[in-house]
Amino acid sequence: MYKVLIIDDEEPLREAIRILGDWKGLGVDEVLEATDGKMGLEMIANHSIDLVMVDMKMPGMSGAELLQVLEQDYPDLPAIVISGYNDFEYTRQAIRSKVVDYLLKPINRLDLNAALRKAVDLLEARRVRESEFINRNITLNMSLPKLKEKMYLSIIDRSFRSQTNEAFLPLIGADDPDNRFAVVVLRMLNMEKVRKARFHSDVDLLHFAVGNMLNEIAGEYFQAFSFASPKLDRELILILTMKGAYQEDIAYRSLHQMNKALAALQDLLGIVAVAGIGSPCESIMEIASSYETAKAAINGIDLLKLKGYFVANTVMKSVNESYPVTGRIQMFRAALESGNTAGAKSILSEELRKWGSADSFTIGEADQSLARFIILMNDMSLELGVPRDKLPLMEEHPVRFMGLSDDFASYDQFSKLLEDSLHFYLEQLRLTLSANRPFEIGDIKAYIDNRYYEDIKISMFADKYFLSREYIMKLFKQQFGCGIHEYVQRIRMDKAKELLDDPSLKIQDISEMLGYKDKNYFSKAFRNYFSISPTEYRTAGKEG
After folding, report:
1. Which CATH number belongs to the domain containing residue 485 in this structure?
2. Which end of the chain has the least Cβ crowding within 10 Å, N or C?
3. Spatial CA neighbour of 492 closest among 475, 464, 517, 474
4. Which of the two residues, 441 and 91, has the higher pLDDT score?
5. Going by DSSP bridges, is the β-strand pair 235-243/223-228 parallel, antiparallel, or unpaired?
6. Are residues 464 and 526 in the same domain?
7. pLDDT by residue (tens digit) across 321-368?
């Protein structure tokens, strides 16, 4: 839509133009008026005017003078001249000012709308050209960073072909022999938390904000270019380029700038991050090695000692092969198959305590242990019948598939992540087993009848059948008229009387056969139940 300004001191003419103009058909949504040249200039300065209609003869500033000002200050503003004088001087100024058309009074509808159509066509053509120009620039500005990113990544993964991409090498400074390079890998340890809290869960927006900060801070000494890692969205890759510098200078400056950048990320965005600085190199083709040392530096950071942000410029510790529930996989599998969730949790807790009490436990070992644990649990869950669509088998972010955050900035957070992951799999097993295996409360009674001498706890049935303690206790009492503990006591006492009738058995032996800790504990339980001690019961039996 367009905005037109009529500049004329004669109100009847302004009114006639308003009436005769086909404004709606021309796409004009607003027609403004000014009574003289000075007022017209003020309105042009304060409104987004697309087209002016100028009367050549006005008091004060004439139309010719106004056109001269417009030609100098608003060269792209189209004008239509209106005059009652067929004067050569006016026409010459109009031609010089490149007006769209020159109308003589009195104005008629046909000529007016023809002139307006010519002006609107000019505006539309200009807008199309401007739009194409803007789109070309947007495309160029967007494509250049993507092209640079693609080139850097191809060098890093060693798939770059020099002959094919030779024309683009100047874009990344590869044509200057004085340039020196280094790769920095930054890992956001609490990315999920920050992404949801401050960026409306938009990871691209988060990458953009972090990348801008890295480029700006590193740019004090380097040419800096950052982009998201295609392998891990919580990591960014930063390419540092420094002209004519010694490798020692790059190492010192990069360490200083990355400490500054990580402090700013934590202060301004609440991001806790670690960074690994790769070895400086003289050729752009060597940044693959720089990237690998940067990744190794991050992977070697000790999670047990990590507090807040940290920058590593050397590989502090190589990553050892670390397997989840090492050496105890069969025990873990047996616990899951039998429904012993407490046992499975205990095995994992023991491993976590072992790792946490070691001399070190690195970020790389944590990543590896988590990945292997998920593979192990996927395999076991499939074998136990959990449907494939309930498991993160081929997911890029398996932890997020479970509804969990894969953030961890400390060993305690890592431990909690593994425990929560185990809970997810146990819940899938519970749902699967409860759907495939009908529960009979009589099974619990039969178990007690046959194994009354064991240390029987309700939690073992809750874990086995994936049901709550409260539900099992309520169902048992409804079916058999007493609670589980009461029933265990009844079975033991009935068996105790049977055993006491055998004079060859000592009371100590009987207490052990019934599962009691010692003779005194059994005697007290027997007296509480029958109001008589085992010895008194045996004596009374002899007398009878």
Report:
1. 1.10.10.60
2. C
3. 517
4. 441
5. antiparallel
6. yes
7. 655 665 677 788 888 777 778 888 888 999 899 999 999 999 999 999
Whether the link from the prior residue into 170 is cis, omega within 30° of 0, is no
Q: Which residues are CB-contacts of 36 (< 8 A; sequence separation ≥ 6)?
A: 7, 9, 58, 59, 60, 61
Q: Is 95 helix (H, G, I), strand (E, B) or coil?
A: helix
Give a yes or no: residue 50 inside a domain: yes
Write a three-state SS string for 476-493: HHHHHCCCHHHHHHHHHH
What is the rounded average pLDDT of the residues 518-523?
A: 88
pTM of the model: 0.59
**pLDDT tens-digit series, residues 223-249:** 999 999 999 999 999 999 998 877 788
Half-sphere exposure of 424 (CA within 13 A, CB side): 21
Is the separation of the CB atoms in 113 and 121 below 8 Å? no
- Terminal alpha carbon distance of the chain: 115
Q: Confirm whether 298 is domain-assigned.
A: yes
71 inside domain: yes
Last residue of a domain, one of 402, 436, 470: 436
Residue 156 within a domain:
no
Q: How far apart are CA 186 and CA 298, in angstroms?
A: 8
**Number of domains into which the chain is organized:** 4
Give the CA-trace dihedral at 114, 119, 120, 124, to 10 degrees.
140
Same-domain check for residues 477 and 421:
no
